[in-house]
Design brief:
Chain B: Belongs to the ABC transporter superfamily. Chain B: It is found in: Cell inner membrane. Chain B: Keywords: ATP-binding, Cell membrane, Membrane, Nucleotide-binding, Transport. The complex is a heterodimer of chains A (about 260) and B (about 280). By secondary structure, chain A is α/β, with parallel strands linked by helices. Chain A has 9 helices and 10 strands. In chain A, helix 3 runs parallel beside helix 5. Chain B has a single domain, classed as P-loop containing nucleotide triphosphate hydrolases (Rossmann fold), CATH 3.40.50. The model of chain B has no long low-confidence stretch (mean pLDDT about 90). Chain B has 10 helices and 11 strands. By secondary structure, chain B is α/β, with parallel strands linked by helices. Classes of the chains: A alpha/beta (about 260), B alpha/beta (about 280).
Chain lengths: ~260, ~280
Amino acid sequence: MTAAVSIDDLVVDYDGFLALDRVSIEIASGESFGLVGESGSGKSTLLRAIAGLAPVSAGTITVNGQTLAARYRDKAFFRQVQMVFQDPYGSLHPRQTVDRLLLEPLAIHGIDNAEPRILRALDEVGLGASFRFRYSHQLSGGQRQRIAIARALIIEPSILLLDEPTSALDASVQAEVLNLLEQVRRDRQLTFLMVSHDLGVVTHMCDRLAVMKSGRVVERLSSGDLASGKVEQTYTQELMVASKGFVRRVIAPAPAG
Amino acid sequence: MTPMLTVEDLRVRFPTRTGVIEAVRGVSFTLGRERLGIVGESGSGKSQTGRAIMGLTPPHAQITAKSLDFDGIDLLKAPSKLRRSLRGNRIAMILQDPKYSLNPVMSIGRQIVETLRTHEKVSAHQARDQAIAMLEAVQIRDAARVFDLYPHEVSGGMGQRAMIAMMLIAGPELLIADEPTSALDVTVQLEVLGILDRLVADRGMGLIFISHDLRLVSSFCDRVIVMYAGRIVEEIAATDLAHAKHPYTQGLLDCMPAIGSSRHPLPVLDRKPEWAL
């Protein structure tokens, strides 16, 4: 088992606030790894640190055997690692057509055969050539997220960083996008690092997961362990209870004050 | 039990350059002092239904209904002065995201006091005491300190509790909660729902809970209305949800990934054109 991504004692420090506090994670090649936790737990910061979008003050990140610099990422890195963001309304350029959105990564990396690649990418995410000259405001939320996935996949990366890829979508559309992600992972043997606050989504998509709180990993477990309730930390148990919906008995009326 | 709110054949239309969009197409239901959930996807018309009852539909939209009756008042014919006196006082609404729905340049306390003093004749001092008591009722610790904070200084969960406090201070009989917890973390979500649940039960309010999360709604409400393309496709008691008849409701329940169930690929909704008829 070779590690696709290996993170060792990573610290991200925002003026004295430790967004990540000595986090270590190892993700095998072809694995799907999940990160869960509440807002501010540092799960998105970890993704951003890998992509070079967060100030790393200590620790190392190794991707496919290469140790990365603290901030700088070269072109070769982005050919291996691509990211899909949470909000498809904010992550697509509003004045560019789908065609231009998909052409841009190809142009940056100097990849030829743009036309067939764009058509293939659209086909792969289940949209077809008729979407090629539309603007993002002419697409629904689910279609936009498909375009964002196509844009990430078009330069054939081996690692995909997914930052809450479905939390802005309706439940029915979420299922479609999750199925698409699973299929491309199978077809291309991709490595996924997926952030979500929804334990259901993470256990569905990932084999192993890490639970984060206040910038630290508090528990590492497999999806099977989670499903069978083999959970050690109370915080993870709280997350599990929360994911099952509202239970009137559990929330006893606490005294005010 | 006489219904507090009767909605019959409610329609909301938006004239646009490319034709009329019917957001709500003939919705009918009644509400007593109970918890009613309205569930649907984006664009199903669930929020517009709530807004029409509250009187917050944009002026260019056309609203028609055979009956839109709140406690004997015909809401469609009511003059705007009467509607203003109802809004916030007898009918209140909690919105989705406290980041956008609270006034950013006014302290939380002043916003709550403003609501109270708009509807009731109380002295400034008394209003402040009541507002702090209300903040305590939504389980905010150190309410006197939070009273003077601005919305950007508090967390999402705290902001949403302040929002609930603001909406409940005038003692409304009907509360419309439009995705009240969607912007919050799962763990905070349950806390806020617990607070909301207790206050609604204690004060005997009617609640309309609008959400896209069928599971959450069914665990919180007594009765659930499922909307699709501006219409009600199914009305069902929350406890009977497992026996939902409409394929859309079944599909919505089925497509959620759950812990411990391994289904690859997930079942997806097969939308039938006749659902939208």
